[in-house]
Amino acid sequence: MDDKVNLDAKFELLDGPYQPGIVGHLNNYKLQIAKLKGPFVWHKHDETDDFFLVLSGHVTIHLRDRDVELDPGELFVVPRGVEHCPEAIEEARVLLIEPDGTPNTGDAGGPMTAEPRLL
Amino acid sequence: MDDKVNLDAKFELLDGPYQPGIVGHLNNYKLQIAKLKGPFVWHKHDETDDFFLVLSGHVTIHLRDRDVELDPGELFVVPRGVEHCPEAIEEARVLLIEPDGTPNTGDAGGPMTAEPRLL
């Protein structure tokens, strides 16, 4: 990465909800931003933890046994192998960090699978 | 990590500037918060990039050939092997991410080397 990243400016370049964009790398981890609105899909990542930091709005990370409620300035790491389903009623903005090659829908696949693009 | 992390609440548990605290892990990466005030030390990490996200205040990352000026909501990844020296005139708060075992002072060592504690 040659320069700093202004997250607000990068959000202006994003497409719709659940269409993440890559804003940089930390070693072999992609630094991604995404808008969330509505429910995502239940999925898990068997090979990696999954980092969420909420920047604006409110996000619920549904787990099979409970919900994790996240406001701005709150982060949650979904442990590897744990099924989860993010949801936001109103549009929320998040920073996501996971290894390169990690599909957004994990093991679930389907129509919400998005190839993140470099912003 | 069993629960979410409220970053503001965790900052209340920190000691002084440049005394980082670990708030969680993403695989083998430590998620750290730190207050910055004053200049740090010039150093580099030959084995890893170094992630900075400014949460409040203003941070200058001095590089040998330029300064990177960061406001809240801006991030910068110092590439591995690149000498840098963070500085904040007034207290600033940052989220730092780097592999477990990465010393805060990199190759420089010295009195500002801090063993991060789990908050």
What's the topology here?
Two copies of one chain form a homodimer.
Chain A: E1 5-6, H1 7-11, E2 21-26, E3 29-39, E4 50-56, E5 59-63, E6 67-70, E7 74-78, E8 84-99, E9 117-118
Parallel strand pairs in A: 2-9
Antiparallel strand pairs in A: 2-3, 3-8, 4-7, 4-8, 5-6, 5-8
Describe the structure using short key phrases:
about 120 residues, homodimer, eight-stranded mixed sheet, mainly beta, globular
Can you offer a commentary on this structure?
Chain A has 119 residues and is mainly beta. In chain A, 4% of the residues lie in helices and 49% in strands. The first copy, chain A, has 1 helix and 9 strands. In chain A, a hairpin with a 2-residue loop joins strand 2 (21-26) and strand 3. The first copy, chain A, starts with a strand and ends with a strand. The model of chain A has no long low-confidence stretch (mean pLDDT 95). Strand 7 (74-78) of chain A pairs antiparallel with strand 1 of chain B.
Which consecutive residue ranges of chain A, at least 5 long each, have pLDDT under 50? none
Instruction: Give the rounded overall mean pLDDT of chain A.
Output: 95
Euclidean distance between termini CA atoms of chain A: 12 Å
Question: If interface size is counted as residues with C-beta under 8 Å from the partner's C-beta, which chains form the largest one?
Answer: A-B, 32 and 32 residues
